[in-house]
Amino acid sequence: MPTILITGCSSGFGLETARHFLAKGWTVIATMRTPKADLLPASERLTILPLDVTDPASIAAAVAAAGEIDVLVNNAGIGWLNALEGTPISVVRDIFETNTIGTIAMIQAVLPQFRTRRAGVIINVTSSVTLKNYDLLSVYTASKAAVNALTEVMALELAPFGIRSHVVLPGQAPGTAFSASARERLTQAGGFPEPYAEMVEGVFARLTSGSGEEKTRPEDVAAAIWRIATDPTAPMCMPAGADAVALFKG
């Protein structure tokens, strides 16, 4: 069976995607910063590896240990919610190092084997916030929009080598750790600037409104990744989740 390498498998989209592909009989290389063997069902087709996408040595070690793969899913990422004025440059660098540069580094690490075999699929998980502008998401949106643009151009570069490149655009996902981790990072960085207090209240009211049925589940993202991995005719950009689909259709 084919082999898939997924980054950011400790929770949310990455964890559910690993479960999905294992259930479908694939060989799964599940990577995470701090490996936890009990997160996924034991299987001879499962390998859990440590991986920090901001560390070149960690990337090289993980790709070497993984061996030959057929699909790379760049899912690892960190969230951020604040006005640009309240975002320290150190945080901007952290966001881009993980969400953007980490994605690029992983792609560069696997491209030689894909190009040699003239086959391979690259799937970058970004966000539906790149489809519509939202308050307090300027830096996060920029980090993900850069990956969208990267993927579009990369698709042209890699098509002659039989390599496919795609983007999955999830919507708001209450069932993941995104919001909690973003709020923790925000607290550590000093919180929101006071002049934006009213805007912040409005944003949090929007984030907590609506039912879960109107938003994105990890299963939606796993299903989108599955379709792309197994269907050569899949569109290059695919929304995942009811809210993402609605935004994508305009």
UniProtKB/TrEMBL annotation:
Keywords: Oxidoreductase. Pfam families: adh_short. InterPro entries: NAD(P)-bd_dom_sf, Sc_DH/Rdtase_CS, SDR_fam, SDR_oxidoreductase. GO terms for molecular function: oxidoreductase activity. The keyword Oxidoreductase applies. The keyword Transcription does not apply. Belongs to the short-chain dehydrogenases/reductases (SDR) family. PANTHER family: SHORT CHAIN DEHYDROGENASE, SHORT-CHAIN DEHYDROGENASE_REDUCTASE FAMILY PROTEIN. This is SDR family oxidoreductase. The lineage of its organism: Bacteria, Pseudomonadati, Pseudomonadota, Alphaproteobacteria, Rhodobacterales.
